[in-house]
Here is the input.
Amino acid sequence: MVKNVVMWVYKPEAEDRGMEKNIQYVKSELEKLPYMIDSIETLEADLNFTGSIATYYMILISMHQSKEMLDYYRDHLDTFRR
Here is the structure.
């Protein structure tokens, strides 16, 4: 199994929405990915609840059966980017 970990820091304002709305929007979109890309074995999108400014705001952890399946996932992400 291959684990893929991505962490984000958000700007206070983007897309004419506040940071909290953007974080919730991205989280809900990320949680749809396993239904669209079958190489994802598991996916977790979690928010930072500590409120500390020294940490990331969101983390995404996905599991894949092999490096080839991870590459497949990464190649197909471009399809879903807006």
